[in-house]
Amino acid sequence: MTEAIAQEPVRAALVSVDFGKSDATASLEELKLLARSAGALPVVIVSARRASPDAQLFIGSGKADELAALIVAHEVELVLFDHVLSPAQQRNLERVLKVSVIDRTSLILDIFAQRAKTHEGKIQVELAQLNHLATRLVRGWTHLERQKGGIGLRGPGETQLETDRRLIGDRVKQLKLRLDKLTRQRATQRRQRQRNAAYKVSIVGYTNAGKSTLFNALAHAQSYAADQLFATLDTTSRRLYLEGAGQIVLSDTVGFIRELPHQLVEAFKATLEETAEADLLLHVVDASSPARLEQIEQVNLVLAEIGADRIPQILVYNKIDREGLSPAVAYDDCATIRRVALSAKSGLGLDRLRDALTLAASQRLPAEIATAAGPSERELRF
To answer: pTM for the whole thing?
Structure first.
């Protein structure tokens, strides 16, 4: 009998540089969660302050030498940067540190690759990874620029770099064709729902805010929900009957994150179109997060990028049980519910959100409303 052997987590060093932004601490905490989500064990954390990145090593030669010593002392196998590195910086750091170096973009892409379950999700992730890899080929593989030479090898032919570019280009074309087909199928399904006049509600929010837990609680579904980043990648939709409003279509979507790689936004546009075509967005916020205001802003930035920034929102402050808060609702000047405080896990306040959904579906919320956190949303008070 063959037994599965549990894989030991990779020992990792985390590197975060404060360039004078207020969210440096929150970003480092997020990097820890990203590392664990990818299967790494953070054993070393290196923080630094700089006015700007070093052109060669990002963190400078002195800090790189300090990091190299820590890598040896703690038997680190991998270094994770909370920033985007250029191909040259990544290559220079690996030469100095003698271990693999991964930047924030590559780390998020790796987590997405682990989480993708459906055929469409896997295609989207592979397309994003290949588009990212193509940028690494520009300067990252200079040792492949030389053509093969010598007896029996002279003559015309591609360099290894050109071959790799061509192979990546061919694969990208294949994936785009498959994705286009799936996009057309999804568009057909949306048109069918429009003919049925179904009111469409999409759950959006920062990763790990509790979107899938809320979706399961509202729709009595079994979507995968876990206390980890990017637990959900594939859009799931369910019909939900509301007393007084009839049938609505509720969709659970991929979570957003600060500095979400552009390659992912591009690759997931087919999925994110579900959000852009919604009648209402339930913007789920982790009420227990000290960075919730910045997270609201980051989600709104991505919504603007996909053309969903003018869709009416209800802000859903989730996880109030962690803060000892009570369920509550907040109304605007038109007596429309704009914010709901609840706990999707315990069920506290879910009835109030259902009432808000019923009101929105029966009255159709006006599209001309502000989505950014205004002065009344600077604190979690109702």
So the answer is: 0.73
